[in-house]
Amino acid sequence: MTNSPPDSLLTAHDLRKAYGPTHALDGAEFSIHPGEVVAIMGPSGSGKSTLLHCLAGIVPPDSGSITYNGRELTKMSDAQRSALRRSEFGFVFQFGQLVPELTCVENVALPLRLNGSSRKDALRTALGWMERLEVDDLKAKRPGEVSGGQGQRVAVARALVTGPRLLFADEPTGALDSSNGERVMGLLTEAARATNAAVVLVTHETHVAAYSDREIVVRDGKSRDMERSV
Ligand SMILES: Nc1ncnc2c1ncn2[C@@H]1O[C@H](COP(=O)(O)OP(=O)(O)O)[C@@H](O)[C@H]1O
Ligand SMILES: [Mg+2]
């Protein structure tokens, strides 16, 4: 049994992860409700990305539990975890990680193709998401031909195209200037809220965290909830 609250989407308890002598996670706690936007904050090297990778089932913790929708991630097989990632999770990283050989709309359509959609259906749904992220005019361009901010909006469209219940974003605006960062965050949170996707947002910037409902601060691999002063 776990002590996860019944209405939580994802809960982690006492996560520990060491890389040699470095305790990247040292008893981190986390929980998020359906549709909630939670920012994970903290200085560089504090364990934010490690926490995100553990929560998303990408990196196994050394110990501790992670429960998604009543199922314990740490007890699933690798195949079950990747199926869960493909069907329920979306990912946005600091650098879009778009496939350079594909056009932008083909990039957005890719997760649907991998899940078995026909090319025609996948491209149509992808274009709808590109309109939502205001990048549909870039559909025929390749990632190398668009700006950083445009590429991140394409990456957000790709992350949301499968209708994930949980979006993981690790410093999604970290490589952008502040006006492009604001635009990406505005569109990302608007699209997530419209589809009731919860968002785990890693950032070290307070103006980015301001888009969240709640903030968690990680320091030396330990996490705690922050009270908002506004
Ligand atoms: N794959 C890895 N191998 C070795 N050390 C790592 C690895 N990933 C993270 N670390 C170390 O763990 C600590 C936390 O890293 P990270 O989670 O990336 O922090 P943050 O995202 O907050 O900058 C750092 O000291 C980092 O150097
Ligand atoms: Mg990081």
Automatic annotation (TrEMBL):
Tell me which residues make up the ABC transporter domain: 10-230
| Statement: the UniProt record of this protein carries the keyword Cytoplasm | no
Classify the source by domain of life: Bacteria
MF terms (GO), sorted A to Z: ATP binding
Q: Which CDD domains match?
A: ABC_MJ0796_LolCDE_FtsE
Q: Which InterPro entries match?
A: AAA+_ATPase, ABC_transporter-like_ATP-bd, ABC_transpr_LolD-like, MacB-like_ATP-bd, P-loop_NTPase
Q: State the signal peptide span.
A: none
Keyword Transport, does the record have it? yes
Q: Which UniProt keywords apply?
A: ATP-binding, Nucleotide-binding, Transport
What's the name of the protein? Answer: ABC transporter ATP-binding protein
Species this protein is from: Streptomyces coffeae
